[in-house]
Amino acid sequence: MRDTLVLNASFEPLSTVTLNRAVVLVLQDKAVVEQAHPELRMRGAAVDIPAPRVIRLCRYVRVPFRRQAPWSRRGVLVRDRHRCAYCGRRATTVDHVVPRSHGGQDTWLNTVASCAEDNHRKADRTPQEAGMPLLRTPFEPTPADAMLFALGADELAALPQWLGREAA
């Protein structure tokens, strides 16, 4: 599970990594712990450090500018917090607002998380044709927002305010 946020030396979110990878980066002096889990510690024969929740790289990493987050089924489910856009129950599938058979594409603005029952009931129709209004309007997250969403609600709530968590 990727539960550690990696910041660039300039404090910009870069990615999320596993806890083990974060500890390795800290032990190799490639990163410093910016925020740690309050009750977790990583212990070894010669080491005892707090389990990192947010780490910052010691050297700046140049990243090509990315205007938008890449679309993915997992990304849509994470963006909608695994909640069905039609009924609010747990979502396990992705539904196209405008069906692919009617020219709908795999885009952030045309896909929503959906439970299997509602996805089947809507079938090959638009929400208006099926009489199933959307509870939330789909939106396109920024690359940084998509990364923060991937941390999950519990981890996101524990992050410092300066990371811009209010956007989520």
Q: What gap, in angstroms, lies between the N and C termini?
A: 20 Å
Order of strands side by side in the largest beta sheet?
2-1-4-3
Compute the number of helices: 6
Elements, N to C (H/E):
EEHEEHEEHHHH
Whole-number mean pLDDT: 86
What structural category arises from helix and sheet content? alpha+beta
Radius of gyration: 19 Å
- Taken as a percent bin, the fraction of beta residues is 25-35%
Uncertain parts: none
> Helix amount, in percent?
10-25%
- Total number of strands: 6
Largest sheet: 4 strands, mixed
Q: Tell me, briefly, the overall form.
A: elongated
Explain this structure.
By secondary structure, the protein is α+β, with helices and mostly antiparallel strands. 24% of the residues lie in helices and 26% in strands. The chain has six helices and six strands, in the order ββαββαββαααα. It has helices at 19-27, 73-79, 116-122, 127-130, 143-150, 153-158; strands spanning 2-7, 13-18, 31-43, 48-57, 93-96, 111-114. The protein has a four-stranded mixed beta sheet, with helices on both faces. A hairpin with a 4-residue loop joins strand 3 and strand 4 (48-57). The two termini are 20 Å apart. The mean pLDDT is 86.
